[in-house]
């Protein structure tokens, strides 16, 4: 399989890169051969725009079997322990619109500036429900923001509007690009902090990165094409 690992920063996938250096074959600067797969790590920079643009310009994008967006995330859901790895199946741009005089937020769909059900959107969200691969990873609903929420007022307002589990700064850009280019894709995030009034002391970034990379390595060790799984079933 040809698999791209998409991350906004190199440190989020550094353990994976070290593993590929040690256990795989480095065919070129950012092309590894590992467990019968061709792996392409791609570091895009922070933000949804950089992520979408980097994917669109990636030379191998149209020949990929799977694109994996890997990174850390903040969690609105306190039932999920920090370090938990989650699979984002719904994402949306959560700060594209206007702030009203009372501090509430009206998005471009409420304003009727965009059609909320025009492809690739479903009710304003990017729903990844056509994945051919299955993962035993908790599914969550995400928001993508340019400004991380850091006051209780902003947190309460966005949660009451969208009722999401996590927030990131890239996810919706990743889904938007992959859906428009018809690329099989999955967004995996490890929870590094809770979305709360700004408190870096409570963050567990190293734990999240460790769990994230363990999950990706395990996935690469076990994933196979759907056709290959079906062929294997013929032997039963």
Helix amount: 25-40%
Number of domains: 1
**CATH class wording:** Alpha Beta
**Looking at this structure, what is the CATH superfamily?**
Nucleoside phosphorylase domain
**CATH architecture, please?**
3-Layer(aba) Sandwich
Low-pLDDT residue intervals, each spanning 5 or more residues: 229-236
The proportion of strand residues reads: 25-35%
Quaternary state, please? single chain
Strand tally: 12
CATH topology: Rossmann fold
What general outline do the C-alpha atoms trace? globular
Average pLDDT figure: 92
Tally of DSSP helical segments: 6
CA radius of gyration is 18 Å
> Could you say which structural class the secondary elements and strand pairing correspond to?
alpha/beta
- Mind summarizing the main beta sheet? 5 strands, mixed, barrel
Following the backbone from N to C, one meets helices and strands in this order, namely EHEEEHEEEEEEHEHEHH
Strand order of the largest sheet: 5-11-10-6-12
What does this protein look like?
- The protein is α/β, with parallel strands linked by helices.
- It has a single domain (2-233), classed as Rossmann fold (3-Layer(aba) Sandwich), CATH 3.40.50.1580.
- Helix content is 28%, strand content 28%.
- The chain contains 6 helices and 12 strands.
- Strand 10 (138-144), helix 3 and strand 11 form a beta-alpha-beta unit.
- The two termini are 24 Å apart.
Topology summary:
Elements: E1 2-7, H1 14-23, E2 25-28, E3 31-34, E4 37-43, H2 48-57, E5 66-75, E6 85-91, E7 97-99, E8 105-107, E9 126-127, E10 138-144, H3 152-162, E11 166-168, H4 171-180, E12 185-194, H5 205-222, H6 226-233
Parallel strand pairs: 1-4, 1-5, 5-12, 6-10, 10-11
Antiparallel strand pairs: 2-3, 3-4, 5-11, 6-9, 6-12, 7-8
Helix pairs in contact: 1-5, 2-4
């Amino acid at each position: 399989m040809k698999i791209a690992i998409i991350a906004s920063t190199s440190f989020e996938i550094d353990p994976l890169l070290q593993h590929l250096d040690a256990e795989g074959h480095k065919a070129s600067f950012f092309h590894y051969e590992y467990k019968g797969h061709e792996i392409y790590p791609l570091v895009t920079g922070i933000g949804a725009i950089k992520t979408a643009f980097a994917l669109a310009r990636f030379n191998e994008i149209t020949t990929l079997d799977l694109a994996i967006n890997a990174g850390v995330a903040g969690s609105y859901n306190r039932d999920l322990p920090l370090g938990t790895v989650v699979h984002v199946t719904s994402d949306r741009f959560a700060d594209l619109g206007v702030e009203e005089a009372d501090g509430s937020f009206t998005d471009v769909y409420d304003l009727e500036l965009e059609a909320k059900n025009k492809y690739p959107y479903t009710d304003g969200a990017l729903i990844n429900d056509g994945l051919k691969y299955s993962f035993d990873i908790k599914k969550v609903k995400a928001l993508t923001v340019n400004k991380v929420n850091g006051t209780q007022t902003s947190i309460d307002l966005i949660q009451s509007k969208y009722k999401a589990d996590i927030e990131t700064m890239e996810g919706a850009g990743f889904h938007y690009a992959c859906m428009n280019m018809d690329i099989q894709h999955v967004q995996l995030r490890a929870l590094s902090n809770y979305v709360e009034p700004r408190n870096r002391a409570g963050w567990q970034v190293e734990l999240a990165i460790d769990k994230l990379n363990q999950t990706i390595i395990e996935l690469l060790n076990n994933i196979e094409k759907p056709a290959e799984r079906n062929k294997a079933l013929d032997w039963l």
